[in-house]
TrEMBL record:
This is Transposase. One of its GO terms (biological process) is transposition. Pfam families: Mu-transpos_C_2. The lineage of its organism: Bacteria, Pseudomonadati, Pseudomonadota, Alphaproteobacteria, Rhodobacterales. Keywords: DNA recombination, DNA-binding, Plasmid, Transposition. InterPro entries: Homeodomain-like_sf, HTH_IS21_transposase_type, Integrase_cat-core, IstA-like_C. Residues 7-70 form the HTH IS21-type domain. The keyword Glycosyltransferase does not apply.
Length: 379
């Protein structure tokens, strides 16, 4: 039975629907009765349908051997893996295979096709987010330096928030979330992350994450469900990955120049608000209009924001210095040899004794990424 066109299917089906018998249709359209019955059972040609499994009597006994070789190849460099020709040679020389090369080539091609990843278009429900960091050169206070910019993306609406920092430390991750939540006026139900060491201290054998202590406190405060992409698989959070590139190309070309980090971040917030007026390709609504559905699916802000700082304790030395993260900070001599508490923020370190703040060291966020600089700061 040949393969007939969709047009012929349509003509036969219409004729039979108008009262023509299948026997008459066989004569009029010059096709067999089986073909007419098939045309009445399918609205379009169903194609060839194999009813029995492929039998390869010469190759089938050797399939476990081939599969074993190809599975072992997964641990080898790509250039040292079996080709179809090498499999054929080994089967012939070592195993007594008497079949041809083509059947081996066809089997390996089909096996590789079955093992390829399949990607399903993602549907993003409202109220969920993705977060990441990017890097770009900026000029702050006349000094050219690297900015680490935090990006939070709402995939359902493509709403975004961008904020820049001198270092991508844990305090910056948390501070970026807090400002993003204040910007949107709501908290996402969940956030998708990569496995950054600032957030994930360790990936356990069962795949669960051991979170960093500051990050755990942040999640507990806002009751966010944290989700993670597969290690090394950036396509798991492609929305925010794309937004990192968009932010770099559109917000940081040419190189931004601002007097302070705060001025730069206020300008970035303005760009995020301006972007909400855009209508993206394939959409009929603006980002701002779709953002309303995202906000409806998010939770209300807690009564007070989380304190985005690393907390530690220390003791004032005989030289009136407090050691914090490999750096020494000066405090008034009146507090010598006393126990103190330390709060490390992204832009400053605050040191206190009992209920009193005894020292503030501004711009300490840059120092928090350094392990050799000594900071002596007087009250």
């Amino acid at each position: 039975m040949g393969i007939y066109s969709v047009e012929l299917y349509l003509r036969v089906r219409q004729a039979c629907a108008d009262g023509m018998s299948q026997r008459e249709a066989t004569r009029v359209f010059n096709v067999s009765r089986d073909t007419v019955r098939k045309m009445m059972s399918f609205s379009v040609p169903p194609g060839y349908r194999r009813q029995a499994e492929i039998r390869r009597p010469k190759l089938d006994p050797f399939l476990p051997i081939i599969d074993g070789w190809l599975e072992a190849d997964r641990t080898m460099p790509r250039k040292q893996r079996h080709t179809a020709k090498r499999v054929f040679d080994r089967l012939r020389d070592e195993c007594g295979f008497t079949g041809g090369y083509t059947i081996i080539e066809d089997y390996i091609r089909e096996r590789e096709r079955r093992g390829q990843e399949v990607f399903v278009p993602l549907s993003h429900p409202p109220g969920h987010a993705q977060a990441d960091f990017g890097e770009a050169l900026v000029r702050i206070g006349g000094v050219e330096q690297k900015a680490h910019f935090f990006v939070l993306d709402l995939p359902h609406s493509d709403g975004c928030y961008v904020r820049a920092y001198p270092a991508a430390v844990a305090e910056a991750w948390v501070d970026g979330h807090i400002h993003a939540f204040a910007f949107f006026g709501a908290v996402p139900q969940s956030v998708l992350y990569d496995n950054d060491r600032c957030l994930v201290a360790k990936i356990l054998p069962d795949g669960t994450r051991k979170r960093a202590s500051l990050f755990s406190g942040f999640l507990s405060h806002y009751l966010i469900r944290d989700r993670y992409g597969r290690p090394g698989k950036g396509n798991d959070k492609c929305n925010v990955e794309g937004l990192v590139g968009y932010s770099r190309r559109n917000f940081m070309v040419p190189m931004p120049a601002f007097d302070t980090w705060e001025a730069f971040n206020l300008w970035l917030e303005e760009q995020c608000l301006k972007r909400q007026r855009a209508v993206l390709r394939g959409e009929s609504e603006t980002i701002g209009e779709r953002l309303q559905r995202d906000l409806a699916g998010m939770r209300a802000l807690p009564a007070a924001p989380f304190d985005a700082c690393d907390q530690d304790n220390g003791r004032v030395s005989s030289q009136s210095l407090v050691r914090y993260k490999t750096n020494d900070y000066s405090v008034p001599v009146a507090h010598g040899h006393q126990d103190v508490w330390i709060r490390g923020y992204i832009h400053e370190v605050v040191i206190g004794c009992r209920g009193e703040v005894i020292a503030r060291i501004p711009d300490a966020g840059i120092a928090m990424n350094s392990s050799s600089t000594r900071f002596i700061t007087f009250r």
